[in-house]
Amino acid sequence: MDAPLDAPLLPGRGGPGLPQARRLVTEIPGPCSRALAQRRARSVARGVSSTMPVFAHAAGGGILVDVDGNALIDLGSGIAVTGVGNAADDVVAAVAEQAGRFTHTCFMVTPYAEYVGVCEALARLTPGGHEKRSALFTSGAEAVENAVKIARSATGRDAVVVFEHAYHGRTNLTMAMTAKAMPYKAGFGPFAPEIYRMPLAYPFRWPGGPERCGEQAAAQVIDLIRTEIGAGAVAALVIEPIQGEGGFVVPGTGFLPRLAEFCADAGILFVADEVQTGFARTGAMFACEHEDIVPDLIVTAKGIAGGLPLSAVTGRAEIMDAPQVGGLGGTFGGSPVACAAALAAINLIESADLAARARHIAELTLPRLHALGDRYGAIGDVRGRGAMLAVELVRGPGDHTPDRATAAAVAAACHRRGLIVLSAGTWGNVLRLLPPFVITDDLLLEGLDVLAEACAEVLAPR
Ligand SMILES: *Cc1c(COP(=O)(O)O)cnc(C)c1O
């Protein structure tokens, strides 16, 4: 890297050893990040965008150090990936040990124990005591696609039901399943057929009010499936138990159990996309557990492997074993290095009870977010579970019109102060917090203070 001569001394490694304190030594972005941004503009396609204007150098705990030596508080975890921390010692050691023995053989050529170990862990940890099988892939989108392949193979049906505001990925099939056109779909069609979108029980925006939202929305969805698709044509209903990219929408109470019950009666496979919610993020190992849902198939990725690319489809043995031998796979699917990382990350999540830690993060954070909601009329809703929390910004008290510009201004004010926060939502008007589980209480509270300062700068008090 061409760094200026006065480049700061940067830490040689990340991980929990990094000082857990915010520290700004330049403006954001600093000169080294600006120089890299120029190289980036000449070499990286503009379609790949970034939330923050700084380039990462090292990260660990709740801190990300940029190439100028600024230490930022990370309330994004690389989009819900590094719950166990960036460069967690056990994950780094497992990756180094595995890479030192072999980086790749291809499970489809010469299998290895680490892949089997991850599938055993998935069988043990996912909801339901039935016999299970898993198949491993590389990205979340690839796993969602494979869940649809498996469901179609097992049921002999074509149709797939998805929901408003859903996000399932960027491949052709998963673009069709994703709701939001801009930026995910515009110009990228035609899309895969036989995808049917249904209303979501979105309490803050449900016309009949939040109280009976779950029940009313489920009744609508079931009626639409029966009348417009025909329940007998539907292979799978694919749903995020709490929406991620769609704005951290926690579906109205009763929505998921009623749909699961309907699916079971109609021979439709209930597929939980837990790519973002899985692995302790919501304060339970999987978000389905909050409403005692046992999905037929569960899709996992993001938080599974401490930052290494790995994804999985796990489900009932008879469903998972429906596709013909050789019908599932991929060159890099279940990479041994990613599997070794996953075994280490899963062990950390279990042994340190990081789900309890996620619940503790909610206990510290929710009162602060509600206090902001009381102070500023633009905060229309505070929601989420565990370490997956959000505020939705609107025009003002009683006016639910989404306010994307204000959400972007608050996010930018956070970024300038060295706090990494992400936006989300169909209208881009949701600020979402996804802290790593290993963030210290002090650093989390400092991050929330910074968020409060950013709100004070941008928002008008009630
Ligand atoms: C991120 C995400 C995906 C896609 O995962 P990739 O690894 O980006 O392909 C799918 N579903 C949900 C719920 C996600 O949050």
Describe this structure in words.
The structure is a single chain. This protein has 462 residues and is α/β, with parallel strands linked by helices. 36% of the residues lie in helices and 17% in strands. It contains 13 helices and 16 strands. It has a seven-stranded mixed β-sheet with strand order 4-10-9-8-7-5-6, sandwiched between helices. Strands 11, 12, 13, 15 and 16 form a five-stranded antiparallel β-sheet that branches. Strands 1-2-3-14 form a four-stranded mixed β-sheet. β5, α6 and β6 form a beta-alpha-beta unit. The longest helix is centred in the last third of the chain and has 22 residues. The mean pLDDT is 97. The site of pyridoxal-5'-phosphate has 15 residues, from α5.
Count of DSSP helices? 13
Q: In CATH terms, what is the fold-level topology of the largest domain?
A: Aspartate Aminotransferase, domain 2
Bound molecules: pyridoxal-5'-phosphate
Mean pLDDT: 97
What coarse outline follows from CA principal-axis ratios? Answer: globular
Quickly give the CATH architecture of the largest domain.
3-Layer(aba) Sandwich
Assign the structural class, choosing from mainly alpha, mainly beta, alpha/beta, alpha+beta, or little secondary structure: alpha/beta
Tally of structural domains: 2
Between the first and last Cα atoms, what is the distance in angstroms? 48 Å
The percentage of residues in β strands lies in 15-25%
- Specify the helix fraction band: 25-40%
Radius of gyration: 22 Å
CATH superfamily of the largest domain: Type I PLP-dependent aspartate aminotransferase-like (Major domain)
Helices and strands, in order, run as: HEEEHHHEHEHEHEHEEEHHHEEEHEEEH
Described by its quaternary structure, the protein is: single chain
The top level CATH class name of the largest domain: Alpha Beta
Q: Summarize the biggest pleated sheet.
A: 7 strands, mixed
Low-confidence stretches: none
Number of strands: 16
